[in-house]
Amino acid sequence: MNKTLLFCSLIFFFSCGVETQEIEEIPMETFRDEVKATPVKVGQSQRKSFDYLINASGKIEAENQVMSIVERSGYLIELKVEEGQQVKKGDIIALLDKTDSELEWEKAQVSLRTASAEYESLKIVSSVETTFSENLDKNSRDEFWRASSGLLAAQIAVREAENNLAKTEVKAPITGAIADLKIKKGSLVNAGDEICLVLSTRSLEMKVKVLESDISYVKKGQKTEVYPVSGTSDSEREKITGTVTSINPKVDENGLVQVTIKLSAGGSLLSGMNARAVIRAPQNNNLVVPKEAVVYRSGRPVVFTIDNNEAIWNYIEVGKDNGREIEVLDGLEADKTVIVSNNVQLGHQAAVQITTD
What we know:
By secondary structure, this protein is an alpha+beta fold.
């Protein structure tokens, strides 16, 4: 029995010795080498000119829009335009019944001829009145005769009648497109009634609201890009260029400042359409990284650089963001290789492999 115990003890001792030997022969680096390196794409931190993009929304408006109104009472006998029609300044939009206006004009003409005859009679009579001639010079005598004969009043009446007759033709006040027709053919209209709005569709502008914190970056003459809200993307095909023409010198109750942008061309934009404007504010000598390089850990921005095929964790302080690049204010130097892909779950000193795929 003692032999049996001795044999079992030898087997147990031998087994433990073998196991201990095997564990000691496996180095720790072996486990590390078995962790596959994360494939990453990289970019560069650079000092460069940086376009800060200010985004603002607003409505497209015609730079000039004028309501066409009736200037005298009468029946609208003809409407010569329809909504959307292009007109030039002075084109006839509508015609009013001329009967009363023509009668007024004829009566004024009769009064004018009567006054002219009286005027000539006074001149003949006054030519023999030497006392009157001595007291007044030629121009004064003529003015007296014109007033006494009623010629002045008759001439004014004729001009009024001609003016009223001209008002029976309602003309386009500006060149543009007809909008918001309010009156139909055959309607009885009064002076001051609105017929339609004329919009200068070839000259559009956009009024946007910019945060007071960003207004210092906006200058008159700055170039902008305008995209209709109805568009599918910010493609070059949909982009309309514009220029900042004015900046309201007042901040409203919401901390916003109104900026007016004149559009270089109407394109597919219509007055009243919602659109988004992108104002470019160039900044010089800024340290920037691709936007994809910045990730957030516990609410703090982080950029991973690469050292000896390892990801190095860098806390940074970010500045402005233009949608493609982010300004770095602190925590990173220029000309560093930064990781721009597969960096969301990376850890400090994690093994990485640069790939271009």
